[in-house]
Amino acid sequence: MANYDQHHQQVGTQYNINIDSSRSADTEALLNQGIKFLEAKSYPQSISLFNEVIKADATIAVVYYYLALALLKGRRPKILKRSEVEEIDQLLVSATTCGDSDATVHWFRVLVRDDYYGGNRMNCPPPSVQSILASIQPNTTKLGRLRSLLVKLPMADNTLYSRLLKQTL
After folding, report:
1. How many CB atoms within 10 Å of residue 144?
2. Alpha-helix runs per DSSP H in the chain
3. How far is residue 121's CA from residue 126's CA, in Å, rounded to a whole number?
4. Is the pLDDT of residue 16 over 90?
5. Of the candidates 12, 140, 148, 161, the residue with the CA atom closest to the CA atom of residue 77
6. Greatest C-alpha distance within the chain
7. Contact in structure between 94 and 100 (CB atoms under 8 Å)
8. Are 63 and 94 in contact (CB under 8 A)?
9. In this predicted model, what pLDDT tens digit does every residue of 78-102 receive, in sequence order?
């Protein structure tokens, strides 16, 4: 049977996506579903799935990166609360600690710190943006992943962001 709105025009059916996120679920499937929700800007759902992956297996490095990205919720770092920035920073540290060797994680951390602390004219707690930049090893950045990150970070008026964007094109 068709559904109609208040003007008696036929409307399409809305579907709800339900996911079984039980502990026995495959963590890779949960991670991939979380990434799909992140791409669709369904941040609460992606955050929930990424947290489920961490509960199931805390050694999957890439999930910390995606969770940090989801916690931005499409916002620029400069407007976040300090506690949000610190949580994102800690997740990015966890990603590298768990073995994510792509320097994109470091670039993400640098951009968040530079935009939040520099953009709000605050002193950046250690490590400084410069020391993180100095720790990035040459040829360890996956350019596709970095470009994808830059597209998701809305901070075109940030000088560091602009320079990095020009270098990746």
Report:
1. 10
2. 27-39, 43-56, 61-72, 82-97, 104-113, 119, 129-135, 143-152, 159-168
3. 15
4. no
5. 161
6. 64
7. no
8. no
9. 999 999 999 999 999 999 999 999 9
For the segment 57-82, what is each residue's pLDDT rounded down to a tens digit? 999 999 999 999 999 999 999 999 99
| 7: amino acid identity, one letter | H
Which residue in the block uniquely carries the two structure tokens 């969770």?
Answer: 67
Cα–Cα distances (Å) from 82 to 87, 116, 120, 130, 161, in that order, read: 9, 8, 11, 20, 20
Cβ partners under 8 Å of residue 158, min gap 6: 76, 78, 111, 114, 115, 119
The closest of 116, 108, 111 to 78, measured between CA atoms, is 116
Q: How confident is the model at residue 18 (pLDDT cuts 50, 70, 90)?
A: low
Query: Which two structure tokens, joined as six digits, stand for 90?
Result: 């800690």
Q: For the chain, list the domains and their CATH numbers.
A: 21-168 (1.25.40.10)
Q: Which residues contact 4 (CB under 8 A, 6 or more apart)?
A: 10, 11
Record the tokens describing residue 85, joined without a space: 């920035």
- Check: pTM over 0.85? Answer yes or no: no
In whole angstroms, what is the distance from residue 42 CA to residue 147 CA?
A: 21
Nearest to 120 by CA among 153, 89, 155: 155
Q: What is the token pair recorded at 93?
A: 């540290």
